[in-house]
Amino acid sequence: MSFVSVRDVWQSYGGRPILERVNLSVAEGEFISIVGASGCGKSTFLRLLLAEEQPTRGVISVAGDMPAVEPDRARGVVFQRYSVFPHLSVRDNIIAAESFGTRLGWLWGARLRAARTRADETLGRIGLDHVAGHYPAALSGGMQQRLAIGQALTARPRILLLDEPFGALDPGTRVQMHDFLSDLRAQSPMTIFMVTHDLAEGFKLGDRVLVFDKPRWDPHDPGAYGATITYDFDARHGGIPYHHLREKIHEPTHA
Ligand SMILES: Nc1ncnc2c1ncn2[C@@H]1O[C@H](COP(=O)(O)OP(=O)(O)O)[C@@H](O)[C@H]1O
Ligand SMILES: [Mg+2]
Q1: What is the pTM of this model?
Q2: Beta pairing, strands 159-163 & 75-79
Q3: Cα–ligand 1 centroid distance for 16 (angstroms)
Q4: Which residue, 30, 102, 232, 255, has most beta carbons within 10 Å?
Q5: The predicted structure's pLDDT at residue 243
Q6: What confidence tier does 80 reach under pLDDT thresholds 50, 70, 90?
Q7: For ligand 1, atom 27, which residue shows the shortest CA distance?
Q8: Does a structural domain hold residue 245?
Q9: Domains in the chain, number
């Protein structure tokens, strides 16, 4: 049975179609990479999955539930630029994310020690244990992004949405983050949607790679139609026409 089900979803802003006829069925635990030209609606699709906004038409349901009307803790999200709490230390950023809704000052004694232990485990996994007491301003952009991912993970979301999460990281850090995400998946049944500009990254990490593109194009009115999923590649079983895809998504956008 599909875990995330997207049925005939359309999204328009001010009458302008962005997404049209999007259909998708995702099993629990799948890693879905999403690629496509800039501005084609990838982030919009993640916002719909997050239930941050409702589609103009169509239905998105998770685990057979009624469509969500607002984001909940089952859906974690990490953006390319995520603001962590600047006034909290790195460790307290993790503890604050974990005890969402609880004031930090209310944690004390054994609970505080347990929270610190869990936070330090998370920090170890994202490679920030050596800066646990520092403030975010003292960290590189890459380290701040790892902190943001660590925060999203503390909610143990069933769905993790990653919007170009590694776009600002240096290549070495990206490879570390790939290993980190792979390890994480091995330990938990989390379903992941990741938008990326890097096809190799999409195929390396994803079980499937979805391409968003406009199947209909009016040269006199480029905004006339929305994008949809034009390819759905099985990234785990070879024979992928990868170079065709590369040409396709690097097409000029005629903006
Ligand atoms: N809330 C909104 N109101 C109006 N237009 C929007 C809104 N969100 C996105 N758009 C427009 O929808 C299109 C797709 O945006 P987006 O989903 O951010 O694309 P991508 O993430 O693929 O680059 C863009 O043209 C953008 O300007
Ligand atoms: Mg985007």
Answers
A1: 0.84
A2: parallel
A3: 10
A4: 30
A5: 46
A6: low
A7: 39
A8: yes
A9: 1
